[in-house]
Amino acid sequence: MELKDIAAVSGKPGLYKVVNQTRTGLVLESLEGKGNKIITGPNHRVSLLHEISIYTTDYDKTIPLQEIFTKIYSEFGDDPGVDGKSDPDELKAFLGHIAPDYDTERVYVSDMKKLVNWYNILQKLAPEVIEAPEEAKETKKSSEEDTKEK
C-alpha cells in the first residue's frame, strides 16, 4: 500500500483505503479493518493523502505529506511524542522541529492535529506507508532475496 491509496473524508473520522473508482466517486474501506465501506459522491470532500502538502514561508513551495511522515518516522519512529489531544504549543513546536520553514499563518493547529492523528493511524495500521523510502526499498529487496533463496 502507498500513500496514494489512502484517503481522508471530510466529516468522517479515520482514514480509508481506496478500493475502487466509480463513475461518480470512490469506494473506500476503513483502514481499521472493520469492513466499513463507503461510496463517495459529488457531495463528499475526499482528499488523497499523497496530494496533501504543508505550506511553507516560500509561497512557491510546499512540503508533501510523504516527506513529513518520513521525517517524523526517521526522527521519532513509532512514538512522535504528541497526539491530536496535545497542547497547541506542543504541536507547533513539533511541526517546527519537523518542518522549520512551515508557514505559521496558513498551517492551523487543527491541521497539525490531523497530521499527527494520521501519522499515528498509519503507524499502527499501515507502517509501510510511512517508512523512509530507502528503508522500504531495502526491506522489499531483502524480502525478495529471502524468497529467492527458499
Summed up, what is this model?
This protein is α+β, with helices and mostly antiparallel strands and 150 residues long.
Describe the structure.
The protein folds into 2 domains: 3-49, Roll (SH3 type barrels), CATH 2.30.30; 52-136, Arc Repressor Mutant, subunit A, CATH 1.10.10.1650. 38% of the residues lie in helices and 18% in strands. The protein is built from 4 helices and 7 strands, in the order E-E-E-E-E-E-E-H-H-H-H. It has helices at 65-76, 88-98, 109-125, 133-149, and strands at residues 6-9, 16-21, 26-30, 37-39, 46-48, 53-55, 62-64. The strands form 2 sheets. Strands 4-3-2-1-5 form a 5-stranded antiparallel beta sheet, with no helix packed on it. Strands 6-7 form a two-stranded antiparallel ribbon. Strand 6 and strand 7 form a beta hairpin. The longest helix has 17 residues, at 109-125.
Number of domains: 2
Provide mean pLDDT, rounded: 83
Which fold does the CATH topology of the largest domain refer to?
Answer: Arc Repressor Mutant, subunit A
Question: If helices are DSSP runs of H or I spanning 4 or more residues, what is the number of helices?
Answer: 4
| CATH-level-2 architecture of the largest domain | Orthogonal Bundle
Classify the beta-strand content into a percent band.
Answer: 15-25%
Report how far the terminal alpha carbons are from each other: 25 Å
Q: Pick out the low-confidence regions.
A: 135-144
Q: What is the number of strand segments?
A: 7
Helix content: 25-40%
CATH class of the largest domain: Mainly Alpha
**Alpha-beta content class:** alpha+beta
Biggest sheet: strand arrangement: 4-3-2-1-5
Radius of gyration: 17 Å
Overall geometric form? globular
Sheet bearing the most strands, described? 5 strands, antiparallel
Order of helices and strands: EEEEEEEHHHH
